[in-house]
């Protein structure tokens, strides 16, 4: 396949064969991570800028490691220590970065659509590392890759996604990646946190966690994003945990070989018990591992490695 994308802004317009191509490329990248010297010269001479307007440890570090594994020059840019604190706009920030001639900018921003806006004003490639409650495409791809490694397939699997659907950009990218690859998706959470439009995505919607988990092959728990809540969507964390938290009793309704996933960071004891977060069926750290390989693949393909999967 010939890779033709300049940007990765979301998965809404990704075709299944494109997602398979990224995953196949990630498999070859993952081999690099098993070597004693975990570095290849693929992006030598290229500059990758991590432009993060929201706090992030996992995603920013994953992109940074991915870039360095490919020998790119990686620059980290945090809004907390930038001219944004002096009133500089996103566009002015972008123009200044553009003047420094990076090859790829990885953008996380609290406003939905910020990466799409930026892509109209810069000549370099843009990767969306999460925009508001819109999309988180690299997470959608790494979730797809993690399930393929755990189950060998995605088509036909029952995948239950439980938690704060309303504020989750992860679930919106997963609907595109997992749904388009043939998974049977179930969405579950308090009625106040499951938007009505989710019923039009093809996913089953339920407010009963036992119905969502029963016979599931994969259970993905989502973090309650208290920092995005402008009002209270449930009476208390204790009540939320009782009704929508995953414990051993509820998880026993899933298939015997079901796996547990979570995009992190985990609110332990709220959406997921300590016992299940660290159990043998947990694939949470596998998601982190897959993330580096997927992000290496995206950087490589955007930098011109069009034939990577071959």
Architecture overview:
The chain is an alpha/beta fold. Helices cover 36% and strands 15% of the residues. The strands form 2 sheets. The protein has a 5-stranded parallel β-sheet with strand order 7-6-5-8-9. Strands 2-1-3-4 form a 4-stranded parallel β-sheet. Helix 2 links the parallel strand 1 (47-52) and strand 2 (73-78). The chain is globular. It starts with 15 loop residues before the first helix and ends in an 8-residue tail after the last helix. The model has no long low-confidence stretch (mean pLDDT 92).
What tags apply to this protein structure?
310 residues, 15% strand, four-stranded parallel beta sheet, single chain, globular, alpha/beta, five-stranded parallel beta sheet
């Amino acid at each position: 396949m010939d890779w033709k994308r300049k940007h990765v802004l979301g998965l809404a317009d990704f075709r299944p064969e494109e997602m398979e191509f990224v995953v196949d490329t990630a498999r070859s990248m993952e081999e690099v991570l098993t070597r004693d010297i975990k570095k290849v010269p693929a992006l030598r001479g290229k500059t990758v800028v991590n432009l993060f307007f929201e706090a992030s440890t996992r995603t920013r570090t994953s992109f940074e490691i991915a870039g360095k594994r490919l020998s790119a020059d990686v620059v980290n840019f945090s809004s907390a220590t930038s001219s944004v604190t002096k009133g500089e706009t996103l566009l002015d920030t972008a123009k200044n970065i553009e003047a420094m001639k990076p090859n790829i900018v990885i953008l996380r921003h609290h406003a939905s659509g910020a990466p799409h806006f930026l892509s109209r004003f810069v000549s370099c490639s843009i990767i969306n590392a999460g925009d508001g409650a819109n999309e988180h495409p690299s997470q959608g791809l790494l979730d797809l890759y993690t399930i393929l490694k755990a189950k060998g397939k995605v088509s036909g699997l029952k995948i239950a996604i439980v938690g704060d659907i309303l504020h989750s950009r992860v679930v919106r990218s997963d609907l595109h990646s997992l749904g388009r690859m043939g998974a049977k998706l179930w969405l579950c959470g308090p009625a106040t946190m499951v938007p009505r439009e989710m019923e039009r995505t093809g996913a089953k919607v339920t407010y009963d966690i036992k119905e969502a988990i029963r016979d599931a092959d994969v259970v993905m728990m989502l973090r309650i994003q208290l920092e995005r809540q402008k009002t209270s969507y449930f009476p208390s964390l204790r009540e939320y945990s009782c009704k929508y938290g995953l414990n051993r009793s509820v998880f026993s309704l899933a298939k015997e070989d079901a796996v547990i996933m979570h995009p992190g960071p985990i609110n332990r004891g709220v959406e997921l018990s300590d016992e299940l977060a660290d159990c043998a069926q947990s694939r949470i750290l596998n998601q982190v591992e897959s993330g580096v390989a997927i992000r290496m693949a995206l950087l490589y393909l955007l930098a011109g490695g069009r034939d990577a999967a071959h």
